[in-house]
Amino acid sequence: MKMNKSRYIQLIHIGKGQLNWDDELYRSNLIALTKKNSCLDMSVVELNKVLEFMKSKGFKPVSVKGKHSPKTRDKVVHSPIDKLRQLWIAMKSRGYLRDGSDDALLVWSKDQAKRLNHNVPIDRLEWLKPTMLHHLIEQLKAWYKRKLIEDVKELTPDLRKLKLDRHDSYQAQKVYELGELSKCTIEQLEESASFIGLMLGKYEGGNNV
Questions:
Q1: Which InterPro entries match (predicted)?
Q2: Average pLDDT of the chain, as a whole number
Q3: Three-class secondary structure assignment of the chain
């Protein structure tokens, strides 16, 4: 399936995280492959070259929509377990997880809960004590927030290069004024990451390529 430029950029950024490349290694690889240090300055052919190189290093792109995604997607959160699932789904939707299924969530939760339960395994989420569930939710939120911060920090320089119209420039200013990202809420980071992705797609043609 043919991909547009913004989708290539999203996949490359996900690959950077999966391969655990720091910014210095990431930029040096971009320059070595294309003589450019920003995906925004690359053509689709160059972006594909970077993506294929990442695949050769072990990156495995995954579909955003999981085949067996948890059933609470876009539903009202009624319980701590629903909240845990909602966070898991959100991370999968942004490409932070390879598997967004209930089974994968259970495997992760059991592994984490065992450490909290003196190495005694817990086989069902429903059997977790409220304090354990709270701990898992906070742990997953912290993980999700770290990944969002990486996204916003990585892609904001590319956003600054775009020749935005007046309305979009006004919205972009909110991203630039976030300040210390670690102090932002998950909602603020989600909104900023989504906005940047939208702008990269909207302005992928014309003078910005």
A1: Phage_Mu_Gp16
A2: 82
A3: CCCCHHHHHHHHHHHHHHCCCCHHHHHHHHHHHHCCCCHHHCCHHHHHHHHHHHHHCCCCCCCCCCCCCCCCCCCCCCCHHHHHHHHHHHHHHCCCCCCCCHHHHHHHHHHHHHHHCCCCCCCCHHHCCHHHHHHHHHHHHHHHHHHHHHHHHHHHHHHHHCCCCHHHHHHHHHHHCCCCHHHCCHHHHHHHHHHHHHHHHHCCCHHHC
- Residue 193 makes CB contacts below 8 A (sequence gap 6+) with 94, 148, 151, 152, 155
Match 């972006």 to its residue by tokens: 47
User: Is this structure's pTM higher than 0.85?
Assistant: no
* 63 band by pLDDT with thresholds 50, 70 and 90: low
Residue 75: inside a domain, yes or no? no
Q: 115 with 157, same domain?
A: yes
Domain count, the chain: 2
Range of the domain at 134: 80-204
Q: What percent of the chain has pLDDT over 90?
A: 32
Select from 30, 32, 31, 37 the least CA-distant residue to 15: 30
